[in-house]
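Quick question: who can interpret this fold?

. . .
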Amino acid sequence: MITKQRKTKETEIEVSLDVYGRGNSTIATGVGFFDHMLEAFSKHALIDLNVSCSGDTHIDDHHSVEDVGIVIGQALAEAIYPIENVERFGNATVVMDETAVECDMDLSGRPYLHYEVDVQGKVGSFDTELAEEFFHAVALNARITTHLVMKRGRNKHHILEAAFKAFGVALRRALTENKRVGVPSTKGVL
């Protein structure tokens, strides 16, 4: 279990995670829909995840969502690197009713986010644009190349939930242990 903390004037966060867990989670960010998304991510990534966040949600949810992404990304980086004996690449398409969202990723050590999830407005009180902020923070801090693409969808809740689940399943697949791989790069190092 890896634990990371972050304290700023805007947020106070603690994250603990185990990338080879069972998908158990305890999430308390003060942002209800975001808690639901992190629970879905944890469950489908099979990552045990504990998140506590006290943030300036009286202003809005931006700092809490982005900063939680930063801390989760930092914890993932510590758990993943140096990378060895894992598949490295992962992908998944998650379907929720009318929605399908695809995630492709590379545990490359090179951070990049391509985000093509066209959803605007709110789900409850959650600003949908914050999902991109979260994935951007995770990808940068975990040093993961991530492509999230909505193939189709109408319901905002379904679209965002499918994105979080697809990210989780792709990460689980990328972290699949495979001793035959060794260092998964022709360079001999990542």
